[in-house]
Request: fold
Amino acid sequence: MFRKLGPWFIFVAALFVMSLGIALVTRGNLGTTPISSLPLVSSYASGLTFGETTFFVDVL
Reply:
């Protein structure tokens, strides 16, 4: 059972790190790429943070 959960844990951890990196780059005013414009606009429209929105968009 744990062998099946291992890849999912790595996948979720990688998504978290990727979302954190995108959020930090955007928060540092280094600019955003076109691929992160959807989560950025969605975070303005919803009550979620940019990192949370990026995570959910990446999962989808």
